[in-house]
Amino acid sequence: MTETGPGTPEAIAALTDALPSSPPRSQWWDVWAQFRSHKGAMAGAMVFLIILLAVIFGPWLWHIDPGYIDIRARNQGPSLAHPFGTDQLGRDTMARMFAGGRITMAVGVTAMLLALFLGSFIGILAGYFRALDGLLMRLTDLFLALPLLPLMLVMVLLFRDPLSAAFGPEMGIFILMVSAIGITSWMPTARIVRSDVLALKEREFILAARSSGTTNSKMISRHILPNVMSPIMVSATLGIANAIITESALSFLGLGFPPDFPTWGRLLFDATDYLQQYPERVIWPGVAISVTVLTVNYIGDGLRDALDPRIRGR
Amino acid sequence: MLDHTIADIRNLRVEFQTKDGPVVGVEDVSFTVNAGETVCIVGESGSGKSVSSLALMRLIEYGGGTIAGGEMHFHPQDGADIDLAQTEQSLMRTIRGNQIGMIFQEPMTALNPVFTVERQLTEGLRLHKGMTKKQAQARALELLRQVRIPEPERRLAQYPHELSGGMRQRVVIAMALACAPRLLIADEPTTALDVTIQAEILALMDRLKRETGTAVMFITHDMAVVAQMADRVVVMFRGNKVEEGTVEEIFERPQHNYTKALLAAVPKLGEMRGKPLPEPMRLLGQEDQEIKPIVGTDAPLLTVKGLTTRFAVKGGFFRRTVANVHAAEDVSFTLMKGRTLSLVGESGCGKSTVGRSILRLVEPLSGSVQVGDRDIIGLDSGDLRRARQDMQMIFQDPFASLNPQMNLADQVAEPMRNFDTHRGAELQARVEMLFDRVELPRSFMRRYPHELSGGQRQRVAIARALALNPKLIIADEAVSALDVSVQAQVVNLMMELQADLGLSYLFISHDMAVVERVSHDVGVMYLGRIVEIGPRAAVFENPQHPYTKALMKAVPIADPRKRKSEKDLNFKPIPSPIHPMDYAPEPSHYREVSAGHMVLTTDSGY
Amino acid sequence: MLTFTIRRLVLAIPTLLFISLVIFLLLELAPGDPMAQVPLTVPPEVKERMREALGLGEPIYIRFGNWLWQFFVIEPMHLIDVMFNTSLAEGQQRVISWQTRSPVMDIVAQRMPQTLWVVGLSYVVGVLIALPIGIYSAYKQYSWFDQIGTFISMVGFSVPTFFTGVLLIVVFSVQLGWFPSIYDTTLVVEDWASFKLQIRQMVMPVFVLALYNAAQISRFMRASMLDNLGQDYVRTARAKGLGERVVVLSHVLRNSMIPVVTVIALGVPQVFGGAIITEQVFKVNGLGALLINAIQANDLPMVQTLTFIFAVLIVVFNLIADVLYGVLDPRIRYD
Amino acid sequence: ERGSDGEVKIIYWQAPSIMTPYLSGGTKDLEAASLVLEPLARYNETGAMVPWLVDVVPTVENGGVSEDLTSITWKLKEGLKWSDGTDVTSEDVKFTWEYCTAEGGGCAQSEKFLDVTDVETPDAQTVVVKFGVAKPFPYGPFVGAQSAILQKAQFKDCMGPKMPECTDANFGPIGTGPFVVTDFRPNDVVQLEANPHYRDPAKPAFAKVTLKGGGDATSAGRSVLETGEYDYAWNLQLAPEVLANMEAAGKGKIVSGFGTLVERIMVNMTDPSASLGDERGTAAHPHPFLSDINVRKALSMAIDRALLTEIGYGDAGRATCNVLPAPEIYASTANDACLVQDIAGANKLLEDAGWIKGGDGVRVKDGVRLSMLFQSSTNAVRQDFQALIKQWWSEIGVETELRNIDGSVFFGGDPGSPDTFQKFWADVEMYANNFDGTDPEAYMANWACDQAPRPETQWQGNNMPRFCSEEYEALIAQMAGTGDINKRAELAKAMNDMLMQAYVIIPLVDRGRVSAHSNSLGGVVLNTWDSELWNAADWHRMK
Ligand SMILES: Nc1ncnc2c1ncn2[C@@H]1O[C@H](COP(=O)(O)OP(=O)(O)OP(=O)(O)O)[C@@H](O)[C@H]1O
Ligand SMILES: Nc1ncnc2c1ncn2[C@@H]1O[C@H](COP(=O)(O)OP(=O)(O)OP(=O)(O)O)[C@@H](O)[C@H]1O
Ligand SMILES: [Mg+2]
Ligand SMILES: [Mg+2]
Questions:
Q1: To the nearest 10°, the Cα dihedral for B482, B486, B492, B498?
Q2: What is the mean pLDDT of chain A?
Q3: Position C149 in a domain
Q4: What is the overall mean pLDDT for chain C?
């Protein structure tokens, strides 16, 4: 055996781990720092914020009532009085874009959140509890197989009146729409989350948590959920676009908001008939929808990177 | 031995572009490798060993690195001189795999999971040597024979996941050897493997070097392996070469402090000969260390009787159980308060299964487990959860057993939150105390697992295991994946805690030197059964069972003068633990050799 | 693998029966009436009589039972009759559409060709363009190609097809006159000229749908490639001296396809029923248009049969996805 | 010359699903069938009856109709042949009656044969239709596109419950019309070729007809007017400016004509509030404020019908103040004051009636707010109308919530659905209706008390406003017994005026039919009283 000489500071240093130079930071600060460094995500977040502010505060700055019909001012192009022009009844397009944006954004975001919640919930339950797996996956098949339109008709039939009575007509329809879209679009999320949870369950830290007496509910909230955020993020991106488009289709079929309620999808649909005469009319809602979806996509990309501590550490 | 330089690396510098600016992976490294010679590169984790070898292959560019300076001369034959630092990638392609072969650090993931062994083996041959499919197949078969894979014809058609870890590693080696390279780079090829397979592979590489004159660059941090293999040794530290010399020089006259510290941290089998009780290691730089044997008590804490655990193999139309994996078969032992019982054995022999069955993380088929006066097997899920307060587990893999998304304070606090033993400030205080206890700075509490080195992570896992003041800790390969220097610290810490708190450990490991250091008693497992059990001194100094003897022989010794020759090693492939449903194994019968030293007399399959 | 497949198929039967029952109850509950398109001038009593003639008066379980019997027993017998010139189903009541009073399956068979030509082909085209885009975007992550690809696919995903379709018609049919705006389902491809016609009328609907499909699949492909490009075996492949093309297109692609194949397979059933708007815009009148038409006319047997067929497709493609998964990934073995 | 002009392509944005008028009464199906099946007599573009498979239309004057109005005798043309070459006989005519009235069959046109007790066939050319009661208007059976003649040989095994099973016959009926079906794809496309046995050897000019269905009105119009892919597009209910723009492309022409279709608002006279439970929307509870005629009148006065017409229909509509706007002799002029919008007058009327504007601009009286739910079916023009009307009503202090419902539900009549137009669980609703042919008797009888939809009738019935007046009942009874055409016209006008002056129906627009044909298609005569394709035999390619 080798004789060891007296220790020097360097030798000791070799045995303790080198301290990292940067000071420790809180998790959210880290997430934010990583997010900030993602150019696309930052740009996306900025634009999204601008859109959000515009639809929230726009109506306060732009006083024209979106429902006001000025029949003499029909079909006008952009002008000072109507920066985005007017529609076939002389309603101000800019005011309608603001008002429509509020509803579209509210529906898009809420329905997406609902779908995410349902999808993650069912996906996690199915993945985590073996006994529930078969049942829940068949349920997913069932929902995938359900025809959307009759389902919506039934929902309207059963719930419109009670909801309107409870929350007032507009809120009632809003709840109905959001739940309808949410209920019919959670399935892909559930599938993806489930397969991730199945893989995650085999990981050793889950076993470690179990051995230290973690209960199932704590296990899911502390260990499973944070680790399946990445697929949930992707679903969020695709979900918001899906919600916006479904909403417009439903409104058009008369299953959604009252007809004088503008939404972006509806504005786009209505404008499609006038594509040749007044092409600018499709541009506003079309661009608004695309830009919103794009920004959400970039935000999702950024968040996904930022929420992953391994990437964050790099 | 040909004295012809194959590779000559001068002042290599490698940088990585990261978001926080350039990071230096290797600062300044120079060394040469000669034909027919094995150069071992050792050093702490993160010192730039892998980066150097990747730079030599010019694969570092694909990982985001750049060769920022230095020269890498490669002489495939006399006279030829290529500076690899400047070569075009297109020319590199004709060198990689052809004249330089590489065995990667992680054998489990180095193979493409979706292609057959044949396809992966012949790819390079057909590309570089222009062989036809038939010729390449013949050569592949020959290679597999060379690396001593049983039934090579069958292996060719198999996929990587159908092979055991040792076989996979041998396939990787065969791949690296396929085109008979002039230089073979082996990056920690055996770290993840257990001793028997490691010994086989080391023997194989040594033979190849001797027979073909290939130059070998062998990267490792295991000093015992270095002692076995090396002709010359290069010691690296923080991106620099700090020392170079022949293997005897390095082991006998280390110059640099780091080298000395490294050697001091290596546990050596046989060090404890004559000492019946375990004691902590003496570490360099910790002069005030008090080395005291740990006595323990004679009161039984954990009594396991006839523990049997099987995993069902399902199949058929209705997913019925068609066969069973007999992972643990009639296992019995007793662990006393304040003492350590080690379980050793080959990979897959059922060590982890025994550990997990005790905690009922897998449900045992039969047998009894008594902790204190509680019968674990009979508990319902609520009582079981409460019973786990007394017994905690440290898992095999520190990387895997921490939640990557949770900060460390929360992970350590989790068991206490689960049982609501402490709250608020009290909880905070206890977490801080635990961090102090395992010698982690308190600033680490807000960190995430990926921000820690492997050793630090293992200490977090230990802190978590201690949080509830358990009586029993099951340490499943708690130190196997660690760097020697870190390993020594962790081992000492565990023993210190045992001395202070009177903990009992069930210590699961395949590293015989560490086991010798820490245990009071040792059980040797083979194919789900304990083949030999008894006081550590008795089992190590007087092994009775043939498997125990083979195992002891396979352990490499960190002394270049005590090399093992290939003919000492005599391995049999492990028989399958899978048996049909109607297979009824015999119960285990033991013969007492000396006080408490038992040897299995039933047929164990060895 | 075979037993796995059979087992799954056997298990699928109760699932499908349950699904069909739920669909049936849902349709029962949904408002609407097969007489909705009859002009208001026809008096209510007459409508009532027409309704009765459709069998609407029977209790619900009898109607469901009838449907089951007709769909699972008589329709297959009829198929055998057609194929082998037998007369097993002679005189038996088949599933009859309320709207057209003709056997539902005949109409479904009639709609198949255009559905496959347009919707099926667009899916194939979508996949074929999505894969290279996904692969290249991942290989050159954050390059301009990747950025533009991301941009186009997100726009392609977010702009509804009712708009892109009309836009294409206005530009290419009205302004340029290159392609017809209305799909001719009666066109028989028998020579070069009719083949050219067929191609011309397919270009726009296929493009619109392919863009939408490609957008989604390319995102998945890119993500999967990114995951695999960082794996160790890629380095091993490079260390063997393999060229980049072989490394990416053979080693990485095969692995990356594993999750993507699932996505692609699971997308197929949705494609059959989900191209409703595009079919309407170009008047392709495939299965999607058939379904929406039937729903609007409250043609329960038709809706029930179609949705059930889609449910079967969903279950079958689920299974195909699993089987393909097993084929591509040797680690997964179902037995 | 027959078959010399090649192919004509027609597009119907609602695709035909069946080729007989007896199984589906949908307009699209009737019109498609009219290319093949023909009635004994039909209406021309002016609404006059013209002989078709007969030489003269029987009347009392020419002795064809018996004095007591209980029988009518038709004499088939000589030498009429089915498209399979066999002769058309009176047996076929008689069979058609039997077919439609057979037990257990859901014949859509059985109304046409109401009160027919027997059809006699004294000889192969002669058909005598016997009625059980005196029929002042005996032209129900075998007249118009709804009541075309079927071939007995083809349909004799398809009676009663077997009606739907004869798919081949239902999809490819043998007829006397100018064309024969060669390929029928339900809800997609119908292909026909010239009938080789058509009675006029020079007709039809076209050898082939393709009738494509599906899509929407916009794209149908585009395919005729802008791309020129099709020759004829049916029912282009589009915003006038969109149509004008399409026509400007120069590939085709828009044709329009007026019938009896009136877009109207129905006013609910009963209380639809949900709190009433089972009695919701029944005569037991009068509407809280719409039962006040001043309110109803004010609602009507506030509407600018001319503007609605201009925006929604352009030249294809005219503002109207009558629910019965045509034919000429039935059209009243007594209500034309409504053509001018009078917001101020409406405000004054409400003010005088005690409806006072509250702080939010909505009028209130005795705690009742003028707040309404306004429902209609889903249709771009209707939604524009709703928006406009909502604004006008808000100007007179009436608050309106809008709702649009999918047509299949709204018109579906499902008693389980709260959204049908019959149930009318709203305060006002808007839709369009018309009547078959030219006789308004049945139409005006829609507003009889017992026609009110209510739970006992499973919510069926045509009296949506639940209007009920003894006086009106008396007029209905009187009309049923009157044979003289002028007398009948007076009665009809009186009924119309009574409804109008009670303001239970607020007529808006007399809607014309708009269709388009390509410049090269000749012979198109738009007919709103019968099938649009009624004279397809005369269509030809212009050189
Ligand atoms: N892709 C990379 N990007 C940034 N830094 C890297 C990258 N790869 C390696 N490094 C850094 O280069 C240094 C040398 O790493 P290397 O992998 O060579 O260590 P090693 O000596 O092989 O350690 P081990 O024994 O753990 O394998 C480390 O500090 C590491 O953080
Ligand atoms: N969940 C499981 N299902 C089926 N077989 C299993 C399972 N876990 C372990 N096995 C099998 O049981 C046997 C014993 O495994 P175990 O993990 O206990 O080995 P070990 O001694 O801990 O090996 P190592 O040194 O590699 O950790 C092996 O053959 C293994 O394949
Ligand atoms: Mg390394
Ligand atoms: Mg283990």
A1: -50
A2: 78
A3: yes
A4: 81
Assigned domain for C5 exists = no
Q: Do C235 and B104 touch (CB under 8 A)?
A: yes
Percent of chain C residues topping a pLDDT of 90:
0
Helix axes B454-466, B424-437, angle to 10 degrees: 130
Q: The whole model's pTM is what?
A: 0.80
Q: What is the pLDDT of residues B449-504, one digit of tens each?
A: 777 766 677 788 888 888 888 889 998 877 776 777 778 877 888 888 888 888 89
Entry field: residues in chain B: 606
Query: Which ligand sits closest to the CA of B43?
Result: 1
- Check pLDDT > 80 for residue B156: yes
User: Does any domain span residue C15?
Assistant: no
Assign B572 a pLDDT band (cuts: 50, 70, 90).
Answer: low
The answer, yes or no, to whether any atom of ligand 2 lies below 6 A from the CB of B528, is no
Mean pLDDT for chain B?
A: 82
Do C193 and C269 fall within a single domain?
yes
Domain-embedded: residue C27: no
Instruction: Report which protein residue has its CA nearest ligand 2's atom 11.
Output: B327
Q: Are D312 and D385 in contact (CB under 8 A)?
A: yes
CA distances to A238, A265, B542 from A51, rounded to whole Å, are 18, 16, 79
Q: Over the stretch D504-539, which tens digit does the pLDDT of each residue have?
A: 999 999 988 888 999 988 888 888 888 888 888 888
- Tell me the three state secondary structure of residue A23: coil
Is B221 touching ligand 1 by the criterion CB < 6 Å?
A: yes
- Pair (C148, C262) in one structural domain: yes
Give residues with Cβ within 8 angstroms of B86, minimum separation 6: none
Helix axes B257-264, B484-501, angle to 10 degrees: 50
Q: How many CA atoms lie within 13 A of D337 on its CB side?
A: 11
Is A256 contained in some domain?
yes
With H, G, I as helix, E, B as strand and everything else as coil, classify residue D161: helix
CATH code where residue C251 lies: 1.10.3720.10
CB proximity list for A148: less than 8 A, separation 6 or greater: A184
Number of separate domains in chain C: 2
What ipTM was reported for this prediction?
A: 0.78
Choose one of C97, C122, C151: the last residue of a domain: C97
Size of interface C-D (CB pairs under 8 A): 194
Domain that holds residue A100: 46-66+84-312
Query: Is residue B162 over pLDDT 80?
Result: no
Question: Any residues with CB less than 8 A from the CB of D22 and at least 6 apart, and which?
Answer: D99, D100, D107, D108, D109, D150, D163
Tell me if chain C has a CB within 8 Å of the CB of B95.
yes
Measuring CA to CA, which residue among D424, D332, D27, D509 is closest to residue C41?
D27
Residue A183 lies in a domain: yes
What is the rounded CA–CA span in Å between residue A56 and residue A46? 15
Average pLDDT (B259-284) is 80
Q: Is residue A10 part of a domain?
A: no
Domains and CATH numbers, chain B: 5-264 (3.40.50.300), 289-359+472-606 (3.40.50.300), 390-470 (no CATH)
Length of chain C, in residues: 335
Q: What is the tens place of the pLDDT at every residue in A240-263?
A: 878 887 887 777 666 778 877 888
pLDDT at D347: 92
